[in-house]
Amino acid sequence: MSDIALETRFEEPHCVFNAKDFSSGAHPVWCPGCGDFGVMAGLERGLAKLGRPPHEVVLVSGIGCSSRLPGYMSTYGFHGVHGRALAVATGLKLTRPDLEVITVGGDGDGYSIGGNHFIHACRRNVDMLYVVMDNRVYGMTKGQPSPTTEADWDSDIAPGGIGLRPFNPLAVAIAAGANYVARGFSGDPNGLADLIVDGIRWPGFAFIEVLSPCVTFRPEQREWKKMVRPSSISAERDRAAATALVLGDDGYSLGVLYRGDRAPVTPALKPQISVADIEREFALSA
Length: 286
Description:
With 286 residues, the protein is an alpha/beta fold. Helices cover 32% and strands 16% of the residues.
């Protein structure tokens, strides 16, 4: 899509930004053909459509190929340690509720070492967005199976497959209490942009799983573009039904799969304390 087309796509009455405004200009080091390029495009376009300026948005990430993303965007960013991105993002959102906080990462970072934080972030239901780029492999560390890898995926490091049932992040998110659950595809950045805006605007913890192919270690994932389709399943405010529907899905349905009505956690606003107030506390009486 041309730059002119991009600007036209996001020209709304309230919108004064285009996708380029959210790019840092740094050249990504991802492999050619990596799905994360499409996710970055979806984020840039979604934030342009949302209409908030870059300095009011913070991207928080952990470790992995996808977690490099904050450096490629012009928003504030925090590149943290492995699996701890949601902990950082939760603390940030609770202390600065005025900011738009978005966490990004991969399936290894988010569901393995970060799995505990993922469950409790859903449970706490803080008003922020979590975008996970799932390629079902550890790409940065040379192709090990991840929590979402198919049980029979054959590789040099796991001949014949690992034989373990894949982790189902969507079902876990719904059961644990996430208020918004959706699936996108990196090959459809415009559709992903719409999900990002919808997730941000929906109150509470929003989780978007993005199918993002790793063409280096899993070249067969190029076929995902033929397998994905708009979802025929969705459950509004019925958590049990949504969990059952997601468990029965084949993993390639795109769109909003669940919207809940839980009230998000909001911190009690504390009175602002100035430096002068602190100085007075330590002032010596005459």
